[in-house]
Amino acid sequence: MIKSMTGYGIGSHENGKVKYTVELKSLNSKFLELSLRLPKIVSDRELTLRTEASKLIERGKVNISVSIEYVDQTAKASTINAALFKQYYKQLQEIAQDVGETNASLFEMALGMPEVVSANEDTVDEEEGKVLMGAFYTAIAHFTKFREDEGDVLKRDLESRVHLILSYLSQVEEVEGNRIPLIRERLSHYLDEAVGKENVDMNRFEQEIIYYIDKLDVTEEKVRLRSHCNYFIQGLNASDSNGKKLGFISQEMGREINTLGSKANDANIQQIVVRMKEELEKIKEQLLNVL
């Protein structure tokens, strides 16, 4: 089945001490473009997340964000160097007295001095890393399901449009029966008016008619277009999702439709070809979002 490149998934996992939440969002792209937003404490896990995401997501412009909630909110709290703070504060007081400054917020200034407040930048241990990956895989499962559901909607739409092109092709075959006799009659009438019926070499005329009609024959185009449409539908129902392959098939369909229109030499057929082209353009637009 085909999948959409548009996707969304969120997953959470916890172990009683910490809870990780991973959120994935994706839009269509020719390649895989990963953007990760991680807390600093899990920055060392970025390569692992990128590697796993590359295997499981395949293509798309993907944003991955990770958030952490600790049961004990003080577990990863920043620490204050009290001795250093007092030393800075005392020095600031002395300087304030020397310059006659009494309104300065010395307390806030001392807290902002270098190395007074230091964040706990320890990396996560293996147990906590498993919680992170559990949340990631849960998010991936939801993300993949979203893509499959969206892909099913795309599949039904694409199938209906391809079947519509096939129905137009049947209309071409219905109209085409009168095309060659009309062309023959038109040429014969034109020749009679130009040189006179008695001056026409009928043998030569028949030879030229056969050559001309052969150039206008669209049998091969009809056969190939029907074959491409059937192959496209097979691709939609294949077990793997391959938007690029479907894109190539649609290009071949376009070539046959264009040739059919250029060789038609018939207003009715050309009108039907225009409707084929409209449906094909809609198919190509939809394929931009197929994985």
UniProtKB/TrEMBL annotation:
<dbReference type="InterPro" id="IPR013551">
    <property type="entry name" value="YicC-like_C"/>
</dbReference>
<keyword id="KW-0255">Endonuclease</keyword>
<keyword id="KW-0540">Nuclease</keyword>
<dbReference type="Pfam" id="PF03755">
    <property type="entry name" value="YicC-like_N"/>
</dbReference>
<feature type="domain" description="Endoribonuclease YicC-like N-terminal">
    <location>
        <begin position="2"/>
        <end position="155"/>
    </location>
</feature>
<keyword id="KW-0378">Hydrolase</keyword>
<dbReference type="InterPro" id="IPR005229">
    <property type="entry name" value="YicC/YloC-like"/>
</dbReference>
<dbReference type="Pfam" id="PF08340">
    <property type="entry name" value="YicC-like_C"/>
</dbReference>
<comment type="similarity">
    <text>Belongs to the YicC/YloC family.</text>
</comment>
<protein>
    <submittedName>
        <fullName>YicC family protein</fullName>
    </submittedName>
</protein>
<dbReference type="InterPro" id="IPR013527">
    <property type="entry name" value="YicC-like_N"/>
</dbReference>
<feature type="domain" description="Endoribonuclease YicC-like C-terminal">
    <location>
        <begin position="175"/>
        <end position="290"/>
    </location>
</feature>
